[in-house]
UniProtKB/TrEMBL annotation:
This is Pentatricopeptide repeat-containing protein. Keywords: Repeat, Transit peptide. PANTHER family: MITOCHONDRIAL GROUP I INTRON SPLICING FACTOR CCM1 (PTHR46128), PENTACOTRIPEPTIDE-REPEAT REGION OF PRORP DOMAIN-CONTAINING PROTEIN (PTHR46128:SF341). The keyword Signal does not apply. It comes from Urochloa decumbens.
Length: 437
């Protein structure tokens, strides 16, 4: 740019300052760029210093940021709201809320009153600290001093109340927000929907979804999924079907999670055959969660052959990779059928991803109860062959399982010795030497 004879402006240098102060945290280069501006006949402006202050605050260097404020005032450049707000944000990130509030008072005295963005930063910090009474005070202060609350202000407060178990208060804020003339955002309505669901106020939920057009809100699939998931927990599968029909009527395309909620609700209601028919004959998009649900409920209803077939179908036809949940369901189901060799093989197959203690422990329990000694030894040999480290927690859980199923009885002690020798490997001592103690 310089070689082409194009003179840089303050904006040119501000981009370089932002690069060093925000992206790479090389502050010495940021300072160099500011000092170099004079050599090109360009004076640093409020944007230059504010950019440096923001970068320093993000790095936690608040004292240095105050030094930059002194420097910019010496240069005859007065700080603005967006210069002070990053310092306030830095205080809040460090939990120094009282200092943040003092800074806001300082801004008032300096003739640079906080704007709604500054207040939103403070409200977020107070909410994170559970200081909801102080949030009320700040909201009252906002209304008396002039800056109008934004949707972000209410969203922050409502979300915090909802997460703190105060859903009813959050819903009250939803109405306050509308009285202020603010349009709820998608996030606002998701919070409200969740609050209604927590208190099982499904009539309010349906009414809110139906009013989406009136509220100028395009209810997305995520909002419907939130409600349908809660209805599934309440075993209200007819209401789920009604919501699904309402979605389709409004032109909202269901996604895989929507159908997984539907499949789960049908299975809970004992409509497994309908669920299977929807997946295999009507082209409903299925992922690993879908197949896990169908396999689990097939075993639950005693349809083991269907479960086994679905496991093979998902791997070989649908090309959906089983996850830890899939293998856990399969291993448990095969053991319940007495197919211990198949369960062992299934566990070995799961090792291509990782060694799961949550899968190994129940398998050892099942095999131990049926005294399938050789299967247990085969499991540990495969673990070793795959190169996994067998730590003390695995041995501790395994020995505890053996003792739980009665291997410590004198009639079965040989089994325990054989197992430990097989697990530890040939040539290893089962009992350590006492060394005369």
């Amino acid at each position: 740019m310089l070689a082409a004879g194009v003179a840089p402006t303050a904006s040119t240098f501000n981009i370089l300052v932002k690069l060093y102060a925000w992206r790479t945290a090389e502050f010495h280069h940021a300072y160099d760029e500011i000092h170099a501006m004079r050599g090109h006949g360009v004076a640093p402006d409020v944007g230059t210093f504010s950019t440096l202050v923001t970068g320093l605050c993000r790095a936690g260097r608040l004292d240095e940021a105050w030094g930059v404020l002194d420097w910019m005032m010496q240069e005859g450049c007065l700080p603005m709201v967006h210069t002070y707000t990053p310092i306030l944000h830095g205080y809040c990130r460090q939990g120094r809320i009282e200092e943040a509030r003092k800074l806001m008072d300082f801004m008032e005295g300096a003739g640079c009153p906080p704007n709604i963005i500054t207040y939103n930063v403070l409200i977020k910090a107070l909410c994170d600290d559970g200081r909801f009474d102080e949030v009320k005070e700040v909201l009252a202060e906002i209304k008396t001093k002039g800056p109008k609350p934004s949707a972000v202000t209410y969203n922050t407060y409502m979300d915090a109340l909802s997460k703190a178990g105060m859903a009813e208060k959050a819903v009250e804020l939803f109405e306050d927000m509308r009285c202020e003339g603010l349009k709820p955002t998608g996030f606002t309505l998701s919070i409200a929907l969740n609050c209604f669901c927590v208190h099982s106020k499904f009539s309010e939920v349906i009414r809110l979804l139906e009013r989406s057009t009136e509220l100028n809100w395009c209810a997305a699939v995520v909002a419907y999924n939130t409600v349908m998931s809660r209805l599934c927990d309440m075993e209200r599968w007819l209401a789920i079907l009604e919501l699904l029909a309402d979605m389709i009527k409004k032109g909202i395309i269901p996604n895989t999670r929507t159908f997984n909620i539907l499949i789960q609700s049908l299975c809970i209601r004992g409509k497994l055959s309908i669920a299977i028919n929807l997946v295999f004959n009507h082209g409903i998009p299925a992922n690993v969660v879908t197949y896990n649900t169908l396999i689990h409920w097939s075993y639950y209803h005693g349809r083991a052959s269907d479960a086994d077939s679905m496991f093979e179908y998902m791997k070989k036809v649908a090309n959906v990779a089983p996850d830890e949940v899939t293998y856990t369901i399969m291993v448990d189901g095969l053991c319940r059928q007495g197919k211990f060799d198949e369960a062992t093989d299934c566990f070995k197959e799961s090792l291509k991803d990782r060694l799961s203690k949550d899968l190994l422990t129940p398998l050892i329990n099942r095999l131990g109860r049926k005294e399938r000694i050789r299967n247990i030894v085969a499991v540990f040999r495969e673990i070793e062959r795959q190169g996994f480290v067998r730590n003390h927690m695995i041995f501790e859980d395994t020995v505890r399982s053996f003792c739980t199923v009665g291997f410590r009885q004198h009639t079965k002690i040989f089994n325990l010795e054989f197992l430990l020798e097989g697990i530890l490997g040939p040539g290893k001592e089962v009992y350590p030497a006492h060394n005369g103690r």
